[in-house]
Amino acid sequence: MSAQHPLQFLLESYDSERLKTLSVWSEFADAELSFRPAGYARTPLEHMVHQCVSEDTWLRSMLGIEIAEPALPPEETRLGFLAHYAQASAARLEQLAKRPADWWSGVTKFFGVERSRAWVMLRRLTHSAHHRGELTVYLRLLGKPLYSTYGPTADTGGLLVRGASTIYRYGSVDELLSAEQGRGAWPALPGPGEHSPTERP
Predict the structure, then answer these.
(1) Is 193 helix (H, G, I), strand (E, B) or coil?
(2) Tens of pLDDT along 57-101?
(3) Which residue intervals of 32-157 are DSSP H helices?
């Protein structure tokens, strides 16, 4: 798919969402993967399993995107999931980039309802973002800092209208995987300063 393709944004969005998901996952320590904040809530490990299995199922059964990688990593550790999801999502991105414009407008089945492939891909992105948002709440409950996902957080300075910064933990998937082999990168965060990090005082 060329840069001029009208649906190029879907590929660019999926590529950036891969990094955002991996960045949130990377903040959990192995000892925290069993953290369950409420009786019906998934643990971080169960969220990782769900992300890998559901994305594999959606893209394979609804979009016909077949890759060599299995749905889950051979070792269900933090590093195992980081490496596996990075590889599997990169392989899916490569396959998606080869699809022509008319493929995206073609109709497929979404849980028994007919939808365009572009519509299904957009829903996949929002589905992933929803579960990633749940995990950022877990990070707050565990006392972890929140780096930027789409813009400033309370940790990166609060509200954009007050000049807060966007501070990503990692700039690329390769950088993340390399750093996480050690202690990871933890860019300095300014916090909200003297202002409230919300629109209310």
Answers:
(1) coil
(2) 999 999 999 999 999 999 999 999 999 999 999 999 999 999 998
(3) 44-57, 78-97, 101-105, 117-141
Residue 121's CB is within 10 A of a number of other CB atoms, namely 22
**What is the per-residue pLDDT for 1?**
46
Looking at residue 9, the DSSP 8-state letter turns out to be H
pTM of the model: 0.94
Residue 183, classed as helix, strand or coil, is coil
Best CA proximity match to 154, nearest among 116, 108, 197, 91: 197
* Domains defined along the chain, listed by start: 8-144 (1.20.120.450), 145-201 (no CATH)
Q: Which pLDDT band, with edges at 50, 70 and 90, does 201 fall under? A: confident
Contact 73, 81 (CB under 8 A): yes
What is the Cα–Cα distance from 64 to 61, expressed in whole angstroms? Answer: 6
Is the separation of the CB atoms in 75 and 88 below 8 Å?
no
Grade residue 42 by pLDDT with cuts at 50, 70 and 90. very high
Residue 91 to residue 96: CA distance in whole angstroms: 9
Amino acid residing at 115: R
